[in-house]
Amino acid sequence: MPPAIAPVIRAASPIAGRPQRLTRRAASETILAMANKLSGKTLAVLGAGKLGGILLRAYLKQGLFSPKRVTATVKHAEKAGPLSKQLGVAVTNDNRKAVKGADIILLGVKPQMIADVLKEIAPQLGPKTLVISVAASVPASYLEQHLGRKVPVVRAMPNTPAAVGCGMTGICRGAHAGPEHLEIAREMFDAVGRTVVVDEKNMDAVTGLSASGPAFAYIILESLAEAGVKVGLPRDVATLLAAQTMKGAASVVLETGDHPALLKDSVTTPAGCTIDGILELEEGKLRVTLIKAVVKATSRAGELLFEK
Ligand SMILES: NC(=O)c1ccc[n+]([C@@H]2O[C@H](COP(=O)([O-])OP(=O)(O)OC[C@H]3O[C@@H](n4cnc5c(N)ncnc54)[C@H](OP(=O)(O)O)[C@@H]3O)[C@@H](O)[C@H]2O)c1
């Protein structure tokens, strides 16, 4: 019988070391405590694109950082004004200016841009400035080398469901970062979902599974909806059924900590319909295809940095 997976899932609980089910009051007190802890800090988001923008919007919406203490950057100067208006924070294309006096720097540029940006900002950094990078494929040691001194660095790999507070982020710390830096990063990513601390050797795997994963899940979801259309359902109904079913199945795994194989067995009545569907999935090699997709994405995650 497959083992229950609850301990691993609980380890990724939004609130480290606490039971997962909090009362509403306790949850809001925890969010308030987190907000208070970070709100005195100054944040610079370098590269407020898709992912940087998602994170920044969430921080501002939840009051994690005071807008007065936040500066964001983009590459194209003409985007700065409209984005600043939209977010209500200072936006510039001057990275050096943005990081001056910052307590935390969130690097949201593409992996290939990291070296140039670090070279640009390194002279402005204080010894206590925390650098958090979400760039795929870029090791903490690479960030440290390009910063040229003992700056605390945290490497993170979030995903886009962070936009609706359902993100999953893997984090690990560099050579000069302590548990307190990891804790700050954890709080920043807990604000948009769940966070798990992993060894750096597993960061490409996190990229291949949970950062690329939403794209794989959307394809599965779209296929289920398409199947619903094939068996006569209107498309909007089919999409709702498929999406809520996937969300429901994922929620059961997260809330019970039960192994997915056991949960699958509980849906599968002897000689019923589900087992006929499972037979088709096995014949179509769904499992091996998904495993291969994650393996490929993981190995690709190790290559991005070296491309121009
Ligand atoms: N998208 C995901 O699902 C995902 C998931 C996990 C991690 N990541 C990581 O997140 C990072 C950003 O990805 P993304 O999808 O958000 O890309 P994106 O939308 O292209 O955002 C990149 C941002 O960086 C800005 N930029 C480029 N060069 C810059 C420079 N020299 N100085 C300041 N800003 C600069 C761009 O400005 P302009 O807008 O002016 O061009 C843009 O706003 C990547 O490292 C990626 O590996 C992404």
Report on this model:
- This protein has helices at 6-11, 24-39, 50-62, 77-87, 95-99, 114-121, 140-147, 179-190, 203-211, 213-230, 235-256, 260-267, 273-283, 286-301, and strands spanning 43-46, 70-73, 90-92, 104-107, 130-133, 153-157, 167-173, 193-197.
- The protein has 308 residues and is of the alpha/beta class.
- The chain folds into two domains: 6-200, Rossmann fold (3-Layer(aba) Sandwich); 213-304, Orthogonal Bundle (ProC C-terminal domain-like fold), CATH 1.10.3730.10.
- Strand 5 (130-133), helix 7 (140-147) and strand 6 (153-157) form a beta-alpha-beta unit.
- Helix 9 (203-211) crosses helix 14 (286-301) and helix 10 packs across helix 11.
- The protein is elongated, with a radius of gyration of 21 Å.
- The structure holds NADP nicotinamide-adenine-dinucleotide phosphate (NAP).
- NADP nicotinamide-adenine-dinucleotide phosphate (NAP) binds at residues 46-52, 73-76, 79, 95, 108-111, 113, 117, 134-136, 157-160, 211.
Class by SSE composition: alpha/beta
Sheet with the most strands, sense and barrel status: 8 strands, mixed
Report the span from N to C terminus: 48 Å
Average pLDDT score: 91
Low-pLDDT runs of 5+ residues are: 13-22
Helix content: 40-55%
Strand arrangement, major sheet: 3-2-1-4-5-6-7-8
Compounds present?
Answer: NADP nicotinamide-adenine-dinucleotide phosphate
**Beta-strand content estimate:** 5-15%
Give the CATH superfamily of the largest domain.
NAD(P)-binding Rossmann-like Domain
Order of H and E elements: HHEHEHEHEHEHEEHEHHHHHH
Our count of domains comes out at: 2
Architecture of the largest domain, according to CATH?
3-Layer(aba) Sandwich
Number of helices: 14
Quick one: CATH class of the largest domain?
Answer: Alpha Beta
